[in-house]
Every structure is written in C-alpha cells, then in structure tokens.
Specification:
alpha/beta
Length: about 290
Amino acid sequence: MRSKLFVPGSRPELFAKALASQADALSFDLEDAVAEERKGDARDALREFLCSGVAAGCDKTLIVRVNARDTVHFSRDLAAVARPGVRLVNLPKPRDAGDVVAAAQALDAAERANGVSQPIGLLVNIETPRALRLAHELAAAHPRVAGLQLGLADLFEPLGIARRHAGAIRQAMIAVRMAAGEAGVFAYDAAFADTRDEAGFLAEAGEARQLGFIGKSCIHPSQVALANAAFRPDDEEIDHALRVVEAARSAQSAGLGAYLVDGKMVDAPFVRRAQAVVATATRLGLLPR
C-alpha cells in the first residue's frame, strides 16, 4: 500500500477514475472532504458504489474514512459502508482506547447486518496531541486495528507548529512508528497539501520510508506516482536483501547466529528486514523470474 488516494464521497463521478488509477489503495472520504449538508448524499453515493459489485472485484485496497465516533454520522456511515470489498475503515479523531473498542464493536454489528464475511480492519488516525500521547494504547486497543495513520495538519496547525517543520515531522513520525511497532501494526504517512511541490512530497515520503512507514496518503492523482516511487525498494536494496536471505539460509545450516554480508555484520533483525524487502519486491513484480 505504497500510495493511498483520497476520493471525496460527495464526488461519485470520480470513483471510476480512481479505480483506474495506479494507486495501491483508495480512501473514500466521508469526513473532512464532505460538507456537513452533503454528508447524507455522500454516504448514499458510496453505499450504491460499494453495493454495485465493482468494489468486491477490485484489486486495490479499499478504505473508507468515516466521521468521528462522537458525531451523528458515525453509525450511519458504518451501516452504509461495511460491505464486501472494503478492507479498512479509517477512524478519525479517536479520544482513547475506548473509542477504538466501541468503533470495532459497531463495525462488527454492521458487518453482521450486511452479511460481510471477511472482517474489516481499522486504520486509526493519530491527529491530535492526545492521540499521539496514547498512540500505543490506540494501536493495541482491539485486534481489528491494522495500522496507525499520521495526520500532520490536524496535529500541528492548531498548535501553531509549522506543517513543514522537519524536526517536528520527524519527532511525530518516530512516535507513531514506535507505537505501531510495539502493537505489531503498520504505520502510514500523512497527506501533503502542496500538490505543486513534488520535491517536498518526495522528501517527506523518503523520510517516512526511512522510518519504516509503508506508504503515503495522496490528495491528488499527480502524487500517486511519486508515492509509488518513494516506497519502491531500489535495485541495490533488493540485491542486498536477496544476498542476506541467501546467506541466512547458509548460516542456519552452519549454526551461525551472526555473519558478514557485503562486509557488514548481519543477524536476525537484519534478516527480518531483508525478508520484508524481498516480499515487497516479489509483490511488486520486481524480481527476475
């Protein structure tokens, strides 16, 4: 899920275009991208789309960002969008672990009502100071939590922190990544508002990848190719990972716990990282037959 393209739920004319894009995932938005007076229309349009059968046969990861749990829209959103083909529900502005548990229980009920057999995971937003402080509790609150998603604009702007401040960004990224790592879920990077600044997008995405995030949100189709490129392992990285995996097999046979590959010491943590790189390269079709 290198790239995740936001699609406003109030713009059904964009749904088919989004499906035809190169994004690994689509995030249909019923929250911030939809004006209050259009919430109901957006929900109905998205329900119709998800029930059409197109979503169930889609090879993209389909995500729906619902409205926060303390809004009148939350339960209606879940009833509409808990459908076959939806992989994740994106939960915005959680206050505490209780919010996550309640959302998971509500999602379970919506799945039963709609005949969904494949459980839908939760992607929990970290976009307030409180959520950042409680990030691990949110990540570990329920087995449905699949990942944490950083929201830098919502986190920084109300506090007067510059959205592009490199030090603040890095600190928030590390905090979210560590919380996700402790809970055994993935970490996903924030959106980047300036669609004209490709260099800025790539720099932030590169930082996120270096810190172990799996992908970046995109607010415009022009950002999808940038995210896909930023989170693609390069050829040198793939080659090294293959050598590490092969060396690990030989070392296991020889009973070695640590050994050298390309002049660098390798042990179990490096092997796990190499295996992850090889798995990603395999999924993206980057390995020779």
